[in-house]
Amino acid sequence: MFVGPNASGRLWGNLMLLVARDYQVTLKLVMVWPNGLWSNNLGIDSAKEICDWAHNKQGSLLHVEVIDADWWELCKIPSVGVILVRPDDHVAWVSHCESTSDSINDLHNVFAAALCR
């Protein structure tokens, strides 16, 4: 799963980890971090908040990937969206929307369809 380094990405990550636990599957969470964002656009308090969030993802694997700033544009989704990739590297689901607490219902449906349950 790929998320952006923002509040929506953190919420997508939290919800996705909850649903993955419900379905008893392992999830690799990747925060896609545009090159230069840390030093140029993100205040130290926000950066610390993201690092604290990442550190507290007990039992999950979090990877922060620094990429070219146009990666999200290349994927044709905003950085508030999410990309769920299957273990065979096929895209299972994409959301262009910012996450909300109601997004968990969509994620349950996505996991049920992807896992044929």
Architecture overview:
- With 117 residues, this protein is of the alpha/beta class.
- It has one domain (18-114).
- The chain has five helices and five strands.
- It has helices spanning 7-22, 37-40, 44-55, 71-75, 103-114, and strands spanning 2-3, 28-34, 61-67, 82-85, 91-95.
- The chain has a five-stranded mixed sheet, with helices on one face.
- The longest helix is centred in the first third of the chain and has 16 residues, at 7-22.
- It is globular and about 40 Å long.
- The two termini are 20 Å apart.
Mean pLDDT, rounded to whole units? Answer: 78
Uncertain regions spanning at least 5 consecutive residues: 39-44
SSE series: EHEHHEHEEH
What structural category do the secondary elements indicate? alpha/beta
What is the number of helical segments per DSSP (H or I, 4+ residues)? 5
Task: Determine Rg (CA atoms, Å).
Answer: 14 Å
Roughly how many Å apart are the termini?
A: 20 Å
Q: Tally of extended strands? A: 5
Main sheet overview: 5 strands, mixed
Q: Count structural domains.
A: 1
- Approximately how much helix is present in the residues? 40-55%
Judging from the principal axes of the Cα atoms, what is the shape?
Answer: globular
| Percentage beta strand | 15-25%
Q: Reading side by side through the largest sheet, how are the strands ordered? A: 3-2-1-4-5
